[in-house]
Amino acid sequence: MKKFRFLIGIVAMFCATSCLIGNGSPGSSSETYTGELSVVDTDTKEQSYFDSNASVSIWIPNITEPKFDFIFNGIKFDNLMPVRLNMEVLGIPFHTTISEDQTTINYVFEASNVIPKAGGVNYDKYTIGKLEGCVGKEVEITFTMPSKNKTVYFKTKYTTTE
């Protein structure tokens, strides 16, 4: 019964939440997570950038469609990169699972050949090879950028604001 109440609470939260980010519709849900972002060379594993206070905004623009939109806020791929970008990754399908301790819904996603946007412009040149991760108690996102030979890792623990 406790599990059922938890699931009903999550559904009610998503249905009652208004859009906070992006072009969401009624019945959308969003959250911004802060954590560590690390960028490494895909072959050598040498780190080219690290941010201990990175943020990623994640939202479900339409609760009836299992798709995420992401914004990597102020991302860089190298210490020498002159500007930070707000990189959007849109329409990433997900499916849900229940955690092993049956207390959390996990949103698991995986996509390939995703074209990111920055400032509303598609950046085909920097297509994401593979994007995967999970949003649950912890948030983990990994993606590759073959054109730059980079792999990006983002990880944080979910914290509630009261």
Write the layout of secondary structure elements.
Layout: H1 2-16, E1 29-41, E2 47-60, E3 67-75, E4 85-98, E5 105-114, E6 117-118, E7 121-122, E8 128-135, E9 138-145, E10 150-157
Antiparallel strand pairs: 1-2, 1-10, 2-3, 3-4, 4-5, 4-6, 5-8, 6-7, 8-9, 9-10
Account of the 3D structure:
It is a single chain. The chain is mainly β. Helices cover 9% and strands 54% of the residues. It has one helix and ten strands. It is globular, with a radius of gyration of 16 Å.
Short description:
The chain is mostly beta strands and 162 residues long. It has one helix and ten strands; from the N terminus they run αββββββββββ. It has one helix spanning 2-16, and strands at 29-41, 47-60, 67-75, 85-98, 105-114, 117-118, 121-122, 128-135, 138-145, 150-157.
Q: Main beta sheet: strand number and arrangement?
A: 8 strands, antiparallel, barrel
Q: Give the termini distance in whole angstroms.
A: 26 Å
- For the secondary structure, the number of strands is 10
Strand content: over 45%
What structural category characterises the helix and strand content?
mainly beta
Which features would summarize this protein structure in a list?
mainly beta, eight-stranded antiparallel β-barrel, 162 residues, 10 strands, disordered N terminus
